[in-house]
Amino acid sequence: MGIVKSLTGQTAYYGISSMLGRLLNYLLVPLWTRLIVPPDNLAIVHVLYAWAALLNVLLTYGMETAFFRFSTDPSCDRKKVGDTAFTALFTTTTAAMVLGLLFFRQIAGAIDYGAQARCLFYFVLIVAFDTYAVIPFARLRLENRALRYAVIKLAGIALTAAMNLLLICVLPYYGVMRIDVESVFLGNAVGSALVLVLLGKDLWGFSIRIDRALLRRMLSYGWPILIGGTAYVVNEVMDRVFLRELLPQDTAEYTLGVYGACFKLAIFITLFVQAFRLAVEPFFFSHAKDRDARQTYAAVTLYFTIAVAAMYIGVMANLSWLQLIIGEQYRSGIDIVPIVLFANVFLGLYYNLSMWYKLTDRTRWGAYISILGAVVTVSVIFYGVPRYGYMAAAWSHLLTYGTMMLVSYGFGQYFYPIPYRVGRIVMYLLLAWGGGYLAWYVCGGNPWIGNAILLVFCALVYLLERKDFRKTMA
């Protein structure tokens, strides 16, 4: 069980790169929401990055997880697996990029952003550059080279932030150019390009070759992940696209700008969940054959729950001043934050509870569960948004991830039973929700009272878990 300590270390590395990097990038939010006004002008960022998430899934078509699966298979040549995965993605991504650059103006017109077509040009480059980096980054994770992974990620995000400051703040101040949302995309494209440059050594480590028999096996393994990933994107980000279509035309762009900015205040749990996911997937595959693997997975899930529960209370306790990060015109949507935060808690638990279908090669079940989640998302949004506005979109995240979490737990216990401490997990989730509710709604967001509630929660966790935690980490 001491290998949980190894996972904690890996999560810390990925967490440092994700959290520091994203927080550096997050410092741009006050800049955007104060200089790019009114909120209508920022709507294109939320819409195109929703499409970016979908394109990322389509262009990687499950190959990243297939790379992990077959690279850890003793019967497969790891070098051949890496070359096949990289060559496949390089070929399809290059074709997609060429088409996108040839027809970016037509695409912009088709989605009613013809006047901002240059944003689409940079957007195509961002998506392509990020996809080229998928397999090199996956190999760094597989080889536990988390420090190199972190340094490259941080460098790319730092340059993105610097470019945004230069293009949105410095140059307009000296009259060289005007403030424009196009600068957001140009800055991100430069940052993504730098990542590829820094990955040069890793990129050259792949050969352009495809083992056709192996590729067929990898595609067979990966296609359910593609379907499930597509459904996941619907659950995660396509609410921005749906809001734009379902809200009244005269207010849709403004409302979308407000919703997207407030949604970013859930970043603190989002970052931890992302860092954990990056560490836990190769970790679970690497230790699947261990004698006490299932007990380890159960312990990981319990401690993950404790961590995100404490983070939820912590954010709710300090939300009254955290909301000052975004511009005043954007703060009217602050009530979505408690809902979206807890939705991310459920999402993190779903990542824990969904590894069973990857470990047992039943990836089609991941597709089924994600499709079910997409049905919930679409149903709630299309019913609720015309009646309740963007609050319905926020609730769709909570209901969707809650459903996926429960369904995955049920089927996982049938196909791959794990002795989760369900009572403790449920207790900590209820305490987190109750503590956050008291801090924000009952106590009016008073940070002194809210942080006192957080300390009480942490003290309770210490009393209940200290013996088991020491034993597990030993």
Automatic annotation (TrEMBL):
Membrane topology label: Multi-pass membrane protein
GO annotations of cellular component type: plasma membrane
Cellular location(s): Cell membrane
Superkingdom in the source lineage: Bacteria
Keyword match Cell membrane: yes
Record keywords, A-Z: Cell membrane, Membrane, Transmembrane, Transmembrane helix
Transmembrane segments annotated in the record for this chain: 12-32, 44-63, 84-108, 120-138, 150-173, 185-206, 218-234, 254-276, 297-321, 333-353, 365-386, 398-416, 425-442, 448-464
Xref: PANTHER family: O-ANTIGEN TRANSPORTER-RELATED, PST FAMILY PREDICTED COLANIC ACID TRANSPORTER
Protein name: Oligosaccharide flippase family protein
Species name: Candidatus Merdimorpha stercoravium
